[in-house]
Amino acid sequence: MTGFIILAAGASTRLGRHKQKLVYKGKPLLQHAIQAALSLPNHSIVVVTGYDYKVVQEEITSTNVQVAVNEQWQTGMASSIKCGMQALLNLQPQMEQVIIMLCDQPFVTGEILSKLVREQLSSGKPIVASAYNKTVGAPVLFAQRYFTALMLLSGQEGARKLIQQHLDDVAQVPFPEGAIDIDTPEDVERLMKL
Fold it and tell me: 72: which of 2, 46, 119, 194 lies 20 to 30 Å off by Cα?
């Protein structure tokens, strides 16, 4: 069983509007992320909201998605990861692995997520990260042995901290388009030109 955490709790302050609701190719970014996760079998999906959560939740139309509201969203990404992990473990206590996704990577597809799962099976590595721009990051898969470490992250720490601390445990899946995420109006302009 694979769990998915889609992080969508931030205030999008640099963008100046909800990035979760930004429409690309006819769908809000958050729906792109949800549909990618829904395309995999045997899953539980949790979207973590926070800032202005009622407005963000308008984009969640699938009944196969659980929403977790992170009331501490302002403290940083770690609190959203913990919130998502707790919600997933409540849904699926026997969950074997979790994939952490961001709501603002428009080119994440079900195929990319499937590659993470397949790479974990073939490599046996407990962490499988997407590789782009000479770094590794989200979407990223963590096997069950890292669940406690994810729950112990704090402040602005995200999953990348665990990746960097445990490089021997990391397999990589090439995903050049993963470098494209939406944080600023300039990012939106570039996206719309692609």
Answer: 2
Based on the structure, what is the number of domains in the chain? 1
Tokens representing 11 are 């205030």
Structure tokens at 38: 């829904």
What's the pLDDT tens digit per position in 139-185?
999 999 999 999 999 888 888 889 999 999 999 999 999 888 877 77
Beta bridge partners of 170: 127
- How far is 156 from 181, CA to CA, in rounded Å? 18
The two structure tokens encoding residue 107: 């080119």
Tell me if 159 sits within 8 A of 5, measured CB to CB.
Answer: no
Average pLDDT over residues 6-27: 81
Percent of the residues in the chain that have a pLDDT greater than 70, as a whole number: 98
Question: What range defines the domain where residue 14 resides?
Answer: 2-193
| Share in percent of the chain as helix, strand, coil (round to 5) | 45, 25, 30
User: In the 8-state DSSP scheme, what is residue 64?
Assistant: T
CB 101 within 8 A of CB 9: no
Record the pTM.
0.93
